[in-house]
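Q: Convert this sequence to structure tokens.
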Amino acid sequence: MRHLKTLAVASAALLSFALNSAAHAQDALARAKAKGVLVIATEEQFPPYDFIKEGKHVGFNVDYFEEISKKTGLKLEWIDLPWASVLPGLQAKKYDVVAGPASITAERQKVLNFLPPITSVEAMILVRKGEKGIGSLADIAGKKIGAERASYALNEVKKFGATLPHPPTIIEYQDTAQATADLEAGRLDGMANSSTNVRDTVKRRPEAFDLIPTGFGLKTYSGYMMRKDDDSKTLFDAISAAMLDIKKEGKLTELQKRWFGEAIEVPDMAPEVKK
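A:
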């Protein structure tokens, strides 16, 4: 009986080891299909891509990933995080995709795979309506300018500010909602953000905000990100194929017009960015 019990324990251990080994042998696509879920991280304070309206998560990303869900057959699980912590979490394999989107840069391409671009952006400065002290980009010299931590706009406004005789004081924020609130309250003179975001803010709050019409910095395409490893390759290919189908069917253009106010031409693949 003791031998039978020992054999049973050993068999159970072997079965558990085999199941665990099989689970680890699956790649990201196999795991997603097994769960029937695509896990997406984003920051839900980044209109028009992600924001909360009447208690509901809405925006371009929500509508676009619903289209991806239809193509892949995977349900969507959203995780809301501060932008500065989103990319480290992706590398730690806490989720499958980062929505964002993020500007495609040479530095990011070294460690991340960008899915097909969804838009193109440049940096712009948001100001209060009727603000007389800032009418051009040169006027941000010596002023207080806010920007989101770890963002494309923060990097670009720092570089541009360094070219001015009196560089602006750059204040970093956890999210753009906080920076926008401080700008409206007069604690900032301006806020740097990507062009799609500031134009959306002015569209939604024309009585409170305006923008300096001239953009600056590196014009770049923006896209969603995945890990750059063999484990993620099949899932990356499946989502890319779904996105290209959506684009060919004209749905991407339709969503761009709905959320950005215009159609924006983008390539089928993320271009390799040179420094």
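The longest helix spans residues 2-25.
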